[in-house]
Amino acid sequence: MILKSIMPVAVLAALASAPAFAQQVIYPAKGQSAAKQQKDETECNAWAKKQTGYDPAQATPYAVAPPPQHEGERARGAARGAAGGAIIGAIAGGAAGPGAAIGAVAGTMVGGARQRRKQEEYEKGASQHDQAAAQQKQQYQRAYGACFESRGYTVK
Predict the structure, then answer these.
(1) Among 125, 126, 140, CA closest to 61
(2) Cα separation of 28 and 10, whole Å?
(3) CB environment 80-108: b (16+ within 10 A), e (fewer)
(4) How many distinct helices (H) and strands (E) make up the chain?
(5) Which of 62, 92, 117, 153 is deepest in the core (most CB within 10 A)?
(6) Residues contacting 59, CB < 8 A, separation 6+
(7) How many angstroms separate the Cα of 86 from the Cα of each of 44, 108, 110?
(8) Burial of 14 from C-beta contacts in 10 A (0-12 / 13-18 / 19+)
(9) Domain boundaries, the chain
(10) 136 CB contacts (<8 Å, ≥6 apart)?
């Protein structure tokens, strides 16, 4: 009697020890023991990793590099603009001061646009990486489930 009540607990313990990343529930449809199921889990995990190239234990939600720091683009743009405006103002025969001021304003605007463009490029790359990682994870899960089904388990 005690053995019958322990068996479901053992199966649940085996399922709990299965990788959480699999997000699938595996039922021993042909009376497989908890030890057999654990062995099959290890083998199916290895097989699915080999088939897909995806290792859920190594996957992280933030696998891409942290966002680049774009600070200073406006200041650098202002400095470049001021220098260019001063030169143009001096060449034009006028005072360098007003040209530098106009150049600084224009350079700040260009620097800000550059900063926004770099941030957008980073976000687009991160989004594409996230999509690729999700697709690879899904392929892993299909392979993992298929391995279990081929060994006589029910996968939900």
Answers:
(1) 126
(2) 12
(3) bbbbbbbeebeeeeeebeebbebbbebbb
(4) 4, 2
(5) 153
(6) 21, 133, 137
(7) 69, 15, 17
(8) buried
(9) 73-138
(10) 52, 53, 54
At 120, list the tokens. Answer: 């957008």
pLDDT per position in the chain (156 positions), as tens?
A: 444 444 444 444 444 444 444 468 888 999 999 999 999 999 999 999 999 999 988 876 554 555 666 567 767 776 777 676 667 766 666 666 676 677 677 777 777 777 778 778 877 777 887 888 889 999 999 999 999 999 999 998
Block residue for tokens 């007003």: 98
Alpha helices in 18-95 (DSSP H): 34-52, 73-91
